[in-house]
Amino acid sequence: MSDTPFDVIIIGGGPGGYVAAIRSAQLGLKTACVDKRSTLGGTCLNVGCIPSKALLQSSHHYELAETEFANHGIEVKGLKVNLKTMMGRKDKVVEDLTNGIAYLFKKNKIEHLIGSGKITAPGTVEVTSGKNKQTITAKNIVIATGSEVAPLKGVDIDEKQIVSSTGALKLTKVPKSMIVIGGGVIGLELGSVWRRLGAEVTVVEFLDAILPGMDAEIVKQAGRTFKKQGMKIKNATKVTSAKAAKGGVTLTVEPAKGGKAEKLKADIVLVSVGRRPYSDALGLKDAGVATDERGFIPVDAHYQTNVAGIYAIGDVIGGAMLAHKAEEEGIACMERIAGEAGHVNYGAIPGVVYTHPEIAAVGKTEEQLKADGVEYVVGKFPFSANSRARANSDAEGFVKILSDKQTDRVLGCHIIGPGAGELVQEVVLAMEFEGAAEDVARTCHAHPGTAEAVKEAALAAIGRAIHI
Ligand code: FAD
Ligand code: NAI
C-alpha cells in the first residue's frame, strides 16, 4: 500500500462505491475503496440483485417446464428440482461477477482494502481488519455504505426459520409453506421463487395493496396475476408477533386498522418490510457528519455532506434503493469532485420488479399526475394484441404511457408484461431526451417484437394505435 495520500477514499464497494471508484480512477484520481466484505459488489452482487435474479431465472425455467412445455409439444418426464445444483449455479454467478469487479479494480489501479472503515477526522479513515488497523488519508472521502434489512418489532430474524432476503436466498430445502411479511419488491420476487419451486406462499401486506408507490392499474393487474399463479395475498393486515418452534413459525396477525387477531403458520417466514441506511461503526458523530432522524445522510447537489470533503451516495442517502441509482450517483459525485458537471436525472430512473410477468416503471404514475394537477393523456396497449407475445404464449399484461396533454412530452411509462424491464428502457431514453409520445410512435420497431407494444402504446397516446 502506498504511503502517499489518496485523492479519494470510498467506504463501501457496492454498486455505488465500486462504480464511483472506477470513475474516479478514469478521471485520474488516486483512489482507494474500503469494504468489510472480502468480495466486492456490496449488497447487490453478494446478497441482492444478482443472486435473486439467478434464482428467479432457475425457478422460472422450472415453472415453464412444469406448466408450459406441454403446450409447446415438449414432453418432460421425471421433472424435479435439484436445489443444491440450483444454489450452486447462483453462487457461481455471484462469484464470477464479484471476481470481475476485483479484476476491474486491478485494471484501473484502484487500491482495494478489506476491512471496516471509520472516519476518524475529515480526510482520515481508519481501516480495521481483525486485529490489524491502518490509517489512510485523502482529500475526499465518499461514504457508500448502503443499507441493511429493516427489522420488524415482535418478529426476530434468525435466518433459519424467520429469514431476511439473505436467508431466503440460501434455504437448503423447499419449504412446504412460506409467509412473506411485506408485499414489496423483495417479498414478491423471492416469494415467486419459492412458490415456483413448490412452497405455498402467503404475502401479508400492511397497506391496502401490494407494491406501494407503483401505478394503481399496474398494481391491480399484478395482484390478479400473482393470485392466479397461486400466491395468497392478505392486504391491510399487520403482524403483531412471531413464534418459531420445531414444527414451524406461528404468526399472529390482525387487520391493519385493528380487529380480530388470527394465527397463521408456516415453515418459513420472510421479513421484507424495507431496508434502512447502514452507517454503523463509521464514526459519523465524531467526524461531525449529520444524519436525519431515520439515519440517512443528507447531501447537497454535489453529494457533499455537511462536512467539506466528505460525500455520500447510494442507499445510505435515501431515495430509491436501487443499484443503478447508486451507480449514477457514484459517477456524478466523482465528476463533481473532479470539477466536472456530473448530474443525475431523478425523473428518469427506472424501477423493475423481476417477477413473471415483469413489472417496470419510469417517471410519474397516473396518481401522481392527478395529485400534481397535470393534464395528461393515457396510451395503453395490451400484450394480447402483440404478435411476438402471442407467438411466445407470453401475452399477459400491458404497456401504459402517460404524456402531457398539451405538449405530448412523455411523463411516465408503466409496463406489466414479458421482458418489461428491458422494454421500459427505450422510454427512459425518450424521457432523458425530453421526447414526446409521437417520437416513440414514429420510431421504427422490429417486427415481430414485444417492443412493438411500447410503440403501439405511444401511438395510442396520440390517438392512432394500429393494432387495437
Ligand atoms: P450496498 O450495495 O449495500 O454496498 C455497501 C457496501 O458497504 C457493503 O458491501 C458493505 O459491506 C460495505 N460497508 C458498510 N459499512 C462499511 C464500513 N464501515 N466499512 C467498510 N465497508 C462497509 N436493486 C436493483 O436496482 N435491482 C435489483 O434487482 C435489486 N435486487 C435486490 C434484491 C435484494 C434481495 C436486495 C436486498 C436488494 C436488491 N436491490 C436491487 C437493491 C440494491 O442491492 C441496492 O440498492 C444497492 O446495492 C445499493 O448500493 P450501495 O452501493 O448504496 O450499497
Ligand atoms: P419495499 O419497500 O419494496 O416493500 C416493503 C413492503 O412491506 C411494503 O409494501 C410495505 O407496505 C410493507 N410493510 C411495511 N411494514 C410492514 C408490516 N409491518 N407488515 C406488513 N407489511 C409491511 O421493501 P423490500 O421489498 O424489503 O425491499 C427493500 C429495497 O430493496 C426496496 O427499496 C427496493 O427498492 C430494493 N429492491 C429492489 C429490487 C429491484 O429493483 N428489483 C429487488 C429487491 C429489492
What does this structure look like?
- The strands form 5 sheets. Strands 1, 2, 3, 4, 5, 6 and 17 form a 7-stranded mixed beta sheet that branches.
- The mean pLDDT is 97.
- The protein is of the alpha/beta class.
- Helix 1 packs parallel to helix 9 and helix 3 packs antiparallel against helix 4.
- The chain has 3 domains: 213 residues, 3-Layer(bba) Sandwich (FAD/NAD(P)-binding domain), CATH 3.50.50.60; 112 residues, FAD/NAD(P)-binding domain; 114 residues, Enolase-like, domain 1, CATH 3.30.390.30.
- The site of flavin-adenine dinucleotide has 37 residues, from helix 1, strand 2, helix 2, helix 3 and strand 4.
Overall pLDDT level: 97
Please bin the fraction of helical residues: 25-40%
CATH top-level class of the largest domain: Alpha Beta
Estimated radius of gyration: 24 Å
Oligomer: single chain
Name of the CATH architecture of the largest domain = 3-Layer(bba) Sandwich
> Mind describing the biggest β-sheet?
7 strands, mixed
Small-molecule binders here are: flavin-adenine dinucleotide, 1,4-dihydronicotinamide adenine dinucleotide
Shape estimate: globular
- What is the CATH homologous superfamily assignment of the largest domain? FAD/NAD(P)-binding domain
Helix/strand-derived category reads alpha/beta
Distance between the termini: 65 Å
Ranges with pLDDT <50 over ≥5 residues?
Answer: none
Number of domains: 3
The proportion of strand residues reads 25-35%
CATH level 3 topology of the largest domain: FAD/NAD(P)-binding domain
Counted beta strands: 22
